[in-house]
Design brief:
About 45% of the residues lie in helices and about 15% in strands. It is of the alpha+beta class. The longest helix is centred in the middle third of the chain and has 36 residues, at about 90-125.
């Protein structure tokens, strides 16, 4: 982990702050994550990182007389996952890691985090728009009519989300967070640029002004 953090620290401003969020992850007995966003893999690519391989295998192994026996020294993938059959999901993960490498993945993550902060900063300058979260990764949670009563803000937020989706310039989903409706934004596309973020911000602000009655 120390070598990994040093590598991240060399990549640019804001990266060490992100790396600190994974502090001591190597001391966990197990943890899990998905690759379908930041690793740009299909939806069902998930990973379990397990310290005790034997315990994991004992929990997952399924045996039956009609199943082929494992050859000596051969790794049977059915002993490591709940499914007995599935498509080759690992190939997509291998391909993206092979293509980008550790440094390429770290740079992509750092870039997306930087873009998310850029988006949050620009949205927060517009009166009536409130960024609700500490933007430390690639997620931005925004509320519209933040200076109004909860019910009014909820309605305005839902209207802005619908209008942004209808305009088609970018996609933003709605969610309920801490009992209030918000717009949920994730920066995950490897091709996403600052120009894309600025265009998306402009579209969101235009939608907000329209819903507020200024356009």
């Amino acid at each position: 982990m120390g070598a990994y953090r040093r590598r991240l620290g060399a990549l640019g401003q804001g990266v060490p702050r992100t790396a600190q969020l994974a502090e001591a992850v190597d001391s966990a007995d197990s943890w899990a994550t998905d690759g379908h966003k930041w690793l740009q893999t299909p939806y069902d690519c998930g990973y379990a990182i397990v310290r005790d391989a034997q315990a994991h295998r004992q929990a997952m192994t399924a045996a039956a007389s009609y199943l082929p026996s494992e050859a000596e020294g051969e790794r049977d993938p059915t002993h490591y996952v709940p499914e007995l059959s599935r498509r080759a999901r690992g190939f997509a993960t291998w391909a993206i890691i092979k293509h980008l490498g550790r440094q390429g993945i770290a740079e992509m993550v750092a870039h997306h985090c930087s873009l998310a902060r850029r988006m949050a900063d620009r949205l927060a300058r517009e009166p009536g728009i409130g960024v609700q979260n500490d933007v430390c990764l690639n997620q931005v949670i925004v509320r519209f009519g933040d200076d109004r009563a909860v019910a009014a803000g909820d309605e305005l937020t839902k209207q802005v989300v619908a209008r942004v989706q209808s305009d088609g310039i970018c996609f933003a989903g709605g969610a309920k967070w801490r009992d209030k409706w918000v717009m949920r934004l994730s920066v995950i596309g490897w091709q996403t640029s600052e120009a894309d973020v600025d265009r998306s911000v402009a579209a969101i602000i235009d939608a907000w002004r329209a819903c507020r009655g200024e356009i």
